[in-house]
Amino acid sequence: MSSHLLELCLSRDTDAALRLSSQISDEHVKLLILQQTLESESPNKRSYVGLSVNETIRSCILDGLEKKVDKIKKDFSIPDKR
Known about the structure:
Elements: H1 3-12, H2 14-41, H3 53-63, H4 66-75
Helix pairs in contact: 1-2, 3-4
């Protein structure tokens, strides 16, 4: 989500902007918690925190954590084509 879109929402509808901001924050927290878990489970002690969702999926694949990839794709609504 770009900051421009968030600014546009803020200028038009404060309630919608607050809901959007809250949703983005919730997703980010969910990703950070997942990444902390992955770091503790990574056989290569790879650093996950701070990666994007796509980078997290790639790192899981490299670490052989295919079941985690499926969970991430489901939790973050990532289509198979990506």
